[in-house]
Structures are given as C-alpha cells and as structure tokens.
Design brief:
Length: about 425
C-alpha cells in the first residue's frame, strides 16, 4: 500500500535511500501536480481574465474552478470564496491590513467593531511568525493592542482563569487569529472556546490552516471560521500560491490591499474604483501555472484524505512509543489531539548538530526555531529538531530516525 503511494512521487526514485521527514516545511509533489504545472507552461500558457480568445477563456475557467475547490476544501459556509495569494504569509498580511483599516466597513458582520472600548487582537504564544508579525506591523499605528494566549512547557494552550473576561474588562477583542495545528509540536489545539467567544462577542475568527489543511480539514470546516489562510505547497501543491478563504459579502466590504491591473473597475487621474471580491484583492498577473497545480493538489488531497488520516494515526502511535523510549525530550506528547509532527531535543546536543548528523544518515529533518520564537521561549529551548511525517512515510522511516538519533547520541557520548 505504502509502496503504491510512493510510486506516485518522483522524489523517491530521484533520491534513493533518503528519508524525508520535513513535510511540515513543504510536502512532496505527486506526479499529477507536476503534470498540471507542465500542462499550463507547455500547452496552455496564456494569461487569464484579459483575453477574449478561447484559450484565455479556458485558462480563466480552470483558475475559477480551482478557486471554488480551494474554498470548498475548508469551508461549507454559503458565499465562501477564495482570494489567491502568494501563500499563508501573504494572506495574513492582507488580513492584518484590511481588518485593522478604518476604510473597511464590516461592523454589520462583526459587532465587536462598534464597541467604544480600546480594540484588541488575540493571538497565542504558539503562533508562527506569519500570524504575529503582520498584526504587529499594523496594530500600534492603528490603535490595536495584541494579547497572547500563554502556552505551557509542552506547547498546550494554558490561559489563566478568567483570561477572556479579564481582557474584555478593558478591551474589545475584534480579531482572534489562531493556528489550528502547531508546526512545531503537531498539536491540534482546541479552538472551540475561542470560536464560541468570537461568535458571542461579534469578533472576527481566523484560522491559520497552513498545517491543519492536510491533517484536519474537517475540523477547520466544523469550526466555521470567518477566514482561513493556507498555502498550496504544504498540501502537495507548488510554492508561490495560497489562499485567503472568506465570505464574499464580508470581503466586498474590506479595504483593498495592493493596487494595480486586474483589480480595478475604472481608473481616473484622481482616483480609481475597484472590482468586487475576490478580484479586488488580486492585483497583477496571478501564478496561473501554480494555480493549475493547486487544483490537482486539492483533488489528490481530497481523494487521499482517509489514507492520510489512517497513516497519521498509525505513524503517530508507533513514533510516540519509539521516540519516548529513545531517551530524548519530545515536546507535545501530553496533548489530547496531534498528528505526527515531532519536535525533540537530545539533551546536551544543539538542534543544528542533530540535524547535520541526521543528514549524514540521509535523514532530512528541520532544525531551528521553526518561525516560532515565542513558542521556543515557552518550551524553554532556543531551538529543536523537528521530524514531520506524511502519508508517504512508513514505520521504517520511524525506525531509521530512531537509529539516526542513536548515532547522534553515540557521537556526542550521550
Ligand atoms: N503558519 C504555519 C502554522 C506554518 O507552519 C507556516 C509555514 O511553515 C506558515 C504559517 C507560513 O506559510 P508560508 O511560508 O507558506 O507562507
């Protein structure tokens, strides 16, 4: 079964003997995704939305079909649409600008925007920098304060008692933006209390789905967020494209982000008017070939959802047991819900040395702060090594990792 899965990924024959454990950074690409990218570049390489000729119209139709699929993959909400962006990071920059802009008129959708109290944004200490820095860029100058849900030494949310009530005494939280799944520990956080709070107070509820989109798409849907951000390249797709999914009527009332061709209704010397969403957020030529590939990636992920789920469960149980017995510190094991992404520390060995020595054993893991410096502080380490598994990985890969860790310990005499 696993052999058949691997047969669909040209990476494996091209890199014999390599154990790829870095899918949380980017997933491998199946042949169908590569073919879709090639199809565009080789045979249908025309621009979209501008041509009156049939080839351009066909390419436009393909892109619009992918848009619909990308929205439906994470949302059942009526009127959901997807804005194409460069990826999760770009989606957050768009959101951070528009949701704090005085030019966005979204009071009717989110009553928290009508409160006279000082405005606040709620994030957590577990967030990727993509879901922190864009908010910081706009928060101070637009009068927003940022609050963070604290995290314990294992990566779980650990808010003090009455956390939300205490914030609400002095501020109105207008925006809650949280990652459903940590890219460091694999923890799938329980976001339900924050979703409920947003619904009760009229705040915007956003999910960073960069990791969860491949491991827990149904949980994203069940939480019914107002916005979802994710990248194609962590979901079998190409780099350079992702989406911001939200409801069209809300997006229609949001301030534009970047200006240029493709997003305007009328340009005059003094001012311009804009198209409706999603076009008003898509200035310039899109990554058309990568969007074709995104469509193939969404189809592939959809068809393989139950296989991804069952491999996640199998590898997690096996790897949990083997890693726990390996005499190392593994983060996140106390969480109720996780998928097989492991951050670990070999006591007395720097994460970069671990990564380099594992590479000597042909094992690809990530080492560093994983763009989560606040989380590193909560975990009490400057960096970790991270092994992330996906459904093309096997129990043999877990065994190779354990042997590799044994080799690192031997070199360092630990
Ligand atoms: N959020 C999370 C949880 C991530 O894991 C990542 C990437 O690792 C991002 C955001 C940023 O994604 P991208 O680099 O594709 O924009």
């Amino acid at each position: 079964m696993q052999k058949d899965i691997r047969a669909g990924f040209p990476f494996f024959p091209a890199n014999p003997g390599i154990v790829y454990l870095d899918s949380a950074a980017t997933s491998l690409k199946p042949q169908g995704v590569i073919d879709a990218l090639t199809k565009y570049n080789a045979r249908e390489s025309v621009n979209i939305h501008r041509g009156v000729y049939r080839l351009s119209q066909r390419a436009t139709d393909t892109v619009e079909t992918v848009r619909k699929k990308a929205a439906e993959f994470v949302s059942d909400a009526a009127e959901s649409t997807a804005v194409f962006t460069k990826g999760t990071t770009d989606s957050f920059n768009l959101l951070a600008h528009t949701l704090t802009s005085a030019k966005s008129d979204i009071k009717d959708f989110f009553p928290a925007y009508t409160s006279a109290k000082p405005a606040a944004i709620l994030l957590s200490d577990s967030e990727h920098h993509a879901n922190i820095v864009p908010w910081q860029i706009f928060a101070a100058e637009r009068g927003y304060k940022i609050f963070f849900i604290p995290v314990d030494g294992d990566g779980n949310f650990a808010p003090p008692e009455n956390f939300l009530e205490d914030i609400s005494a002095s501020h109105t939280v207008r925006i809650i933006s949280l990652s459903l799944q940590s890219n460091v520990t694999g923890i799938i956080h329980d976001l339900a209390p924050y979703r409920t709070f947003a619904a009760e107070t009229g705040a915007v509820f956003i999910i960073d789905a960069a990791q969860a989109v491949i491991h827990a798409p149904e949980t994203i849907k069940a939480l019914n967020p107002d916005f979802v951000c994710y990248s194609a390249h962590k979901l079998f797709g190409a780099t350079g494209v992702g989406v911001l999914v939200g409801r069209k009527p809300v997006l229609d009332n949001c301030d534009v982000y970047q200006g240029g061709g493709g997003m305007i209704a009328l340009v005059e010397r003094e001012k311009s008017t804009y198209l409706e969403a999603p076009a008003k957020f898509e200035a310039g030529t899109q990554a058309v070939g990568e969007i074709y590939a995104f469509g193939a990636a969404l189809d592939f992920a959809g068809e393989n959802q139950s296989a991804i789920h069952s491999t996640d469960n199998d590898l997690r149980h096996y790897a949990d047991e083997r890693l726990q017995a390996a005499g190392i510190r593994v983060f996140g094991l106390s969480a109720k819900s996780r998928s097989p992404i492991y951050s670990f520390e070999i006591p007395g060995v720097h994460a970069h040395d671990t990564g380099t020595l594992l590479d000597e054993q042909d094992i690809c893991v990530r080492a560093g702060h994983h763009c989560c410096q606040l989380l590193m502080r909560s975990l009490g380490v400057p960096a970790t090594a991270r092994a992330s598994f996906l459904f093309y990985n096997t129990r043999d890969d877990v065994d190779r990792l354990i042997d590799g860790i044994g080799y690192v310990k031997k070199i360092f005499r630990k």
